[in-house]
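Incident log, support desk, overnight shift.

02:14 A customer reports that sequence design results differ from what the structure should imply. Their input is reproduced verbatim below. On-call engineer (initials T.W.) acknowledged and began investigating.
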């Protein structure tokens, strides 16, 4: 798996060492994916440094970082899931609703005939039980909601979108014309001074930019007014400044363009075509920021009939047959997804790796760089790696897995897991604690 990821990024990257054992319980090799994706990002970082320092991945810690890295001390994290999000049995199979965002929940309530503000789970189940899953999925998507019917692997591979995604590269890259070369930071803090503009939300993109912040990058996250994701903000704002802009407003769009002109990396997770609709398509971005390292993410791929569809990790697992495969292997009567949001986390680390490959290109000869990834394509990659028959179950996280350092977050004291990656002479550490969204000005620090 690691060798395939390295070839997808850059076959000349140094090979990391993966140490340790243990597997998250799954029909697929989730822990191997965790270690390989973290290792790929580490190798891409090592490749930026003059001596290419030795890279080691702790398989156990990489697996644990695919869950929550933060451990609050004397306070609690908000719930990750909305009460009505989840799997429902329809008349002819299973469907999953994703209602964490208020507007997605309202769309589900409209389609199912509930008044806004209602939506008890039992009422949802009664309404869904008599509906065909394909009809409900189509209605929810048309209403601006998020849902996915459960396909088997065979059904997905026969589906037009499954065929389109499987034909796409895992990481599509393109090198652009030369401009001014980039100067990197010192070997012990190689991304110091690198400016990363983050237009992503839960969960893959923020994982990638958190990794970059861990090696000194100045990450500025931009969210629209009133957006929040309280269940994961303490997890993924580590090391970042977080501001708000409404890109539909002319004044805020001008502010964003000024930020972009000073950025070295842009990471964005808008649906294909969304930035173009704001006058910020690829050509406009290149004109604003020549030499930009431009890394994009979408849910269902960039070709095929679902290229513009909203989606999240848990929905993609339903669509791509992963949840059905888990159900079949466990002989269960309901969908069995991966034990963690592995598509999000793996894609996030691969986004960081792609950004680092692009930064290396820019540092060498000043050329710009583009990379495109999707959750569905990562799912196809993982689907090729079933769990080994002699897999050793990963033990739960304990005190020995935690850093002794205290993080003074905006909500209270916390600890983090020890870093999953070791690079000789290059520590992974964050200069800023986690904090709420929208608490920083929309400007680069001096």
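02:41 Re-run completed on a clean worker. Output:
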């Amino acid at each position: 798996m690691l060798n395939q990821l390295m070839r997808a990024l850059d076959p000349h990257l140094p090979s990391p060492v993966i140490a340790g054992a243990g597997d998250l319980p799954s029909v697929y090799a989730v822990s191997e994916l965790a270690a390989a994706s973290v290792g790929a990002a580490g190798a891409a970082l090592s490749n930026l440094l003059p001596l290419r320092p030795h890279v080691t991945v702790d398989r156990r810690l990489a697996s644990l970082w695919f869950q929550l890295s933060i451990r609050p001390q004397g306070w609690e994290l908000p719930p990750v899931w909305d009460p009505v999000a989840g799997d429902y049995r329809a008349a002819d199979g299973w469907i999953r609703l994703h209602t964490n965002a208020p507007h997605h929940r309202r769309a589900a309530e409209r389609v199912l005939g509930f008044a806004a503000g209602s939506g008890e789970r039992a009422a949802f189940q009664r309404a869904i039980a008599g509906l065909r899953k394909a009809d409900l999925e189509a209605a929810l998507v048309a209403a601006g909601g998020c849902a996915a019917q459960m396909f088997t692997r065979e059904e997905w591979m026969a589906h037009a979108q499954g065929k389109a995604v499987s034909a796409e590269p895992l990481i599509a890259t393109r090198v652009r014309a030369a401009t001014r070369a980039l100067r990197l930071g010192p070997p012990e803090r190689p991304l110091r001074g690198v400016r990363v503009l983050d237009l992503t939300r839960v969960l893959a993109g923020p994982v990638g930019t958190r990794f970059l912040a861990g090696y000194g990058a100045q990450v500025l996250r931009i969210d629209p007014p009133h957006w929040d994701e309280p269940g994961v903000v303490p997890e993924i704002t580590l090391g970042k400044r977080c501001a708000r802009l409404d890109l539909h407003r002319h004044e805020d769009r001008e502010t964003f363009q000024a930020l972009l002109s000073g950025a070295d990396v842009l990471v964005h997770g808008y649906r294909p075509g969304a930035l173009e609709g704001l006058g910020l398509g690829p050509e406009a971005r290149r004109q604003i920021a020549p030499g930009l390292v431009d890394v994009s993410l979408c849910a269902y791929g960039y070709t095929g009939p679902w290229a513009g569809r909203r989606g999240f990790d848990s929905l993609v697992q339903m669509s791509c047959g992963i949840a059905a495969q888990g159900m079949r292997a466990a002989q269960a009567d309901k969908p069995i997804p991966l034990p963690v949001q592995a598509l999000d986390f793996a894609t996030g680390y691969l986004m960081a790796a792609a950004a680092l490959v692009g930064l290396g290109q820019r540092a060498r000869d000043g050329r710009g760089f583009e990379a495109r990834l999707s959750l569905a394509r990562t799912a196809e990659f993982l689907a090729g790696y079933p769990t080994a028959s002699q897999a050793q179950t990963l033990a739960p996280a304990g005190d020995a897995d935690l850093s002794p350092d205290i993080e003074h977050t905006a909500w209270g004291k916390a600890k983090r897991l020890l870093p999953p990656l070791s690079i000789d002479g290059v520590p992974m550490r964050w200069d800023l604690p986690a904090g709420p969204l929208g608490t920083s000005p929309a400007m680069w620090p001096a």
